[in-house]
Amino acid sequence: MKDHNQHEIQMSEAFLNSAFLALSGGFQDAYTYNARNEVFCNAQTGNVVLMSQHFMAGELMAGLSYFFPIVFFAFGVWVAEKVQANFKYARKLHWRQSILLAEILILFAVGFIPTEYNMLANAMASFACAMQVQSFRKVNGYSYASTMCIGNLRSGTAAISGYFREKKPKQLEQAMYYFGIIFMFAVGAGIGGNLSIHFGIRMIWVSCGFLTVSFLLMFVEKYKRFHEEHEHN
């Protein structure tokens, strides 16, 4: 059972899989900002800043539009933790795939919510994004975030600094992973922003497409392991 879990985690940590998650992460933030009243579903630091600004200006409803995504983001992390604890060794469907499936369904539903209910849409999107960032935390063994950039930028820059100081190729490789993820996030944000501006709220479904690729990639790992086991038998 342990070996089974370790094989699946290899795909969940692969750069290819992480790239699609980062594409989706960037897309989601650009989508909620441009199509859902300038609220972030991933960048909760920005939401805290804007929430505090509006509350202190006496703008209660405007402040609440940022408050609820923050709360639902925290709730999403809590739910992801519960899923991992209860289904970590599930054999039919890896617990991370369950998280992805739930995220896809939630974001698909968001595409149907009219703009009059942006507060609900942003809360749901933040909940889904939190489950993703909590469940996928490593790329090729390095800790990273698939839905935000500040930690990746810090880690990548530190790795570059270490490489120039110690000349260890591993540090350069580490930096390239981080900057590669940042690049994919930026690509996703660019696509998401432009599609959302020009075509509206249903463009979140493109993000669902990126997540579906990630979901299917984890089946590829399972198929490889199944094939290898039967070859040895």
Overview of the structural elements:
The chain has 233 residues and is an all-alpha fold. It is built from nine helices and two strands. The chain has helices spanning 2-13, 15-35, 44-56, 60-87, 95-110, 118-135, 150-166, 169-199, 204-232, and strands spanning 138-139, 142-143. The chain has a two-stranded antiparallel ribbon. 42% of the residues are buried.
Order of helices and strands: HHHHHHEEHHH
**Strand percentage:** under 5%
The helix/strand class is mainly alpha
Low-confidence stretches: 1-9
How many beta strands in the DSSP annotation?
2
Categorize the overall geometry: globular
Mean pLDDT, all residues: 90
Helix tally equals 9
Taking all Cα atoms into account, the compactness measure Rg is 19 Å
Helix content: over 70%
**Major beta sheet, specifics?**
2 strands, antiparallel
- Separation of the first and last Cα atoms: 18 Å
How do the strands line up in the largest sheet?
1-2
Which SSEs are present, and which pair or pack?
Layout: H1 2-13, H2 15-35, H3 44-56, H4 60-87, H5 95-110, H6 118-135, E1 138-139, E2 142-143, H7 150-166, H8 169-199, H9 204-232
Antiparallel strand pairs: 1-2
Helix pairs in contact: 1-9, 2-6, 2-8, 2-9, 3-4, 4-5, 4-6, 5-6, 5-9, 7-8
